[in-house]
Specification:
The chain is mainly α and 115 residues long. It has four helices and no strands. This is DUF423 domain-containing protein.
Length: 115
Amino acid sequence: MTLFYAALLGGLGVASGAFGAHALKDMLPADLLATFETGVRYQMYHALALLGLGAARFKSRGILFLFLGTLIFSFSLYLLALTGVRVLGAITPIGGVLQIIGWVMVALDARKAKW
């Protein structure tokens, strides 16, 4: 399932990045385009991390937190950039906290497994 999560995030990340670079480049102000690009960047970082965890067949309780946290983090930034509704930025930290929890859980599980 981890490789599925990685592939889903990676594929959507490439599509989002291309959309931002080509369709939004001239449509959004620089600050909102940068917000969109931050979502893409974090999505791709976590896609690669999940790809590594899945390829290593490393079992961790944190994988789902990383996946869900990335969806919430990145897609809230995409929505904020596309709509300009700044209150959507209040959702982004929820995703970030889930990502942090996921990384802590991965670290604890790796330590327990003596990785």
